[in-house]
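Hi everyone, sorry if this is the wrong subforum. Our group has a chain we'd like a structural model of before ordering constructs, and none of us has done structure prediction before. Sequence below.
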Amino acid sequence: MDVVFGTCPECETNLKCPQDATSIRCPNCKHEFQVSNPIQRTQLYQKGKRIFVIGLLILISYFGLSAIAIFGSGDGLAILYLMPIVLVGSTVSLFGLIYMAYDKFSNGDRMVVGELAGIVFFVVFFVSVYQMLTGFNGIV
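Answer:
Right subforum, don't worry. Here is the predicted structure as tokens:
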């Protein structure tokens, strides 16, 4: 059972109560008051977290596979065959972060700074990998 700590609004006594409690009576002043429960995460947040971790594992696997490809073939171009792994991993991680941010924002939690920073990172990473693959440098 999770316990939430708080104070009585009348006498400011430190209290602890179960997380699912809706009303509490202070043992000192006998004041009864309503408790607002913290924001609950839904299934979409957990699903987004799992998708993010899977995408991150796909992305990280590139670094192990690229070392094997370089030492195995002796050809530096072998890494280019593994670039789709980076693109897929970063895209999957990006969608996981978007799910997590959407769920937090739709539940009223406006603290999505970490998710937004991750989204910006993966978009920049995706664009840099695209530039590396295509040779596009923005100069006409």
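For your construct planning: The mean pLDDT is 77. Residues 101 and 112 are 6 Å apart (CA to CA).
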